[in-house]
Amino acid sequence: MFPATISTDIAEFGPAPVKGHGPGWFGYENHYESVLARKRADKSYRWFRNVNRLAREFPYAHSADEQKKVDVWCTNDYLGMGSNLEVIQTMHKVLDKYGACSGGSRNISGHNQYAIALEDVLARLHMKQAALYFNSGYTANDCALTVIGSQLPGCVFLSDASNHASIIEGIRHSGAKKMIWRHNDIEDLEAKLKTIPKDTPKIIAFESVYSMCGTVSPIAKICDLAEKYGALTYIDEVHALGLYGPHGAGVAEHLDFEAHRNGESEGTIMDRIDIFAGALGKGFGTMGGYIAGSAALVDMIRSVSSGFIFTTAQPPPIMAGAKAAIDFQRSNPDSRMELQRNVRSVKRALIEYGLPVLPNQSHIIPLMVGDSAKCQQVADILFNEYNIYVQPINTPSVPIGEERLRISPTASHTVAQQQHLLSALIEIWDRLQLRTLQDWERDAEGRLKPEWNSTEIGQAVWSNKQLDVVPAVLPDLTILPNQLEDTRLGI
Ligand SMILES: Cc1ncc(COP(=O)(O)O)c(C=O)c1O
């Protein structure tokens, strides 16, 4: 087990307050303990590691011990924009001139040139009339969906079963009716749309890249259905921003790659999407979230949303840094292409060695373990013996029995680092006798399970042609038997 999850040294503060102890009173502390005991029992209790990302050595970090460096293979800062020189220099300049605080909510303190410029670039990124910046991606989804669902009379949400918690909560907070359609199942979506009267407002809420399984939604088909049944489309592109499309606007942009490269947007998928939701703490390496859509929609959310109105705005350097990251990625596709090449070589090598990579079309590599204690054990061995950090993903983020390592290569991982990860995983899988790719691919009767149809891997969002790579020229990550032991010596 690794260090505590709470930052303070509890002993320093003595025992917790005793209010409510004794017969007849409500026992607050006992109640907290019983909630925690339930979390431990159902394996959803969370442990945090002390990981300090090093801006000048991305993707390395140091642990509690500054001398122990670990190679981070689970960051959402996929492109290393959090360490990008232009981003950092911009933030320094704005911080020195305007300070560390925005001074209050935009409602009472006004906004500033950085908020205006950021929202302008966000709207342009998605070719929409307007955008609104929130303090996080979670807040953006929660607030926007709450407003939309509560302001459209009798509105019905059609929500993909694998949607992120922030989408689920936003819909719940709106009080609107919700229908959940099976993950990425267009037929199920259509069956549900058919049951809703024509004059009822309806919103299809979904993501482009699903973070825990890496699946990509059938966006064009969803747009077709939305047009056929008069529904609005609300897409969360949080895990695709910076990574897909000629300008890094996400999968919707990527689907009309050439048109957008040539600056033509009419009739494209991006054009057909009504509302985009995004976050800036992932591919854009900074912080915050947003929605983009028509000017009237954005103004309505700005005017009504409690979670937007009654909170202190992000400090100017954060907004300036976020804009610098977007500007950089809009005109520099190299790192997103490098990232995809790294994903290709790591995925291919893991599969060649029989490690159970769940197939998908994106940059996320879910490596299935299927048991929470073992998943934690693999992560511990990687950290302690190999100086590799990958966070285990357990329930409730994934169903029990589908625990996994969520590996996210970055644009900066070298061939040597990829090889180190691969040899570590091969050794650990062997040591712990974990289920292999073949074990996962087949059901008890030996039939291939549909979700393991590996042909999907060949249909990645980024095509070989767009990346200018053919699988044969990917780096060879072959591990020789005598290298297995060597790699455990560290990085
Ligand atoms: C699909 C999706 N949407 C929204 C969010 C929230 O974004 P943020 O981390 O900026 O709050 C996340 C976070 O991981 C996410 O995975």
TrEMBL record:
Question: From which domain of life does this come?
Answer: Eukaryota
Q: What is its main location?
A: mitochondrion
Any one GO CC term of the record:
mitochondrial matrix
EC class (word): transferase
Per the entry, which co-factors are needed? pyridoxal 5'-phosphate
Write out the catalysed reaction. Answer: succinyl-CoA + glycine + H(+) = 5-aminolevulinate + CO2 + CoA
Q: What keywords are assigned to this protein?
A: Acyltransferase, Heme biosynthesis, Mitochondrion, Pyridoxal phosphate, Transferase
In which pathway is this protein known to take part?
A: Porphyrin-containing compound metabolism; protoporphyrin-IX biosynthesis; 5-aminolevulinate from glycine: step 1/1
Q: Which residues form the Aminotransferase class I/classII large domain?
A: 72-425
| GO terms under biological process | protoporphyrinogen IX biosynthetic process
Which cell locations does it reside in?
Mitochondrion matrix
Molecular functions (GO terms): 5-aminolevulinate synthase activity; pyridoxal phosphate binding
Q: Which residues form the signal peptide?
A: none
What the entry lists under InterPro entries is as follows: 4pyrrol_synth_NH2levulA_synth, Aminotransferase_I/II_large, AON_synthase_class-II, PyrdxlP-dep_Trfase, PyrdxlP-dep_Trfase_major, PyrdxlP-dep_Trfase_small
What Enzyme Commission number(s) does the record list for this chain? 2.3.1.37
Its family remark reads: Belongs to the class-II pyridoxal-phosphate-dependent aminotransferase family.
Describe the task this protein carries out: Catalyzes the synthesis of 5-aminolevulinate (ALA) from succinyl-CoA and glycine, the first and rate-limiting step in heme biosynthesis.
Name the UniProt record assigns to this protein: 5-aminolevulinate synthase
Q: What is the lineage of its organism?
A: Eukaryota, Fungi, Dikarya, Ascomycota, Pezizomycotina
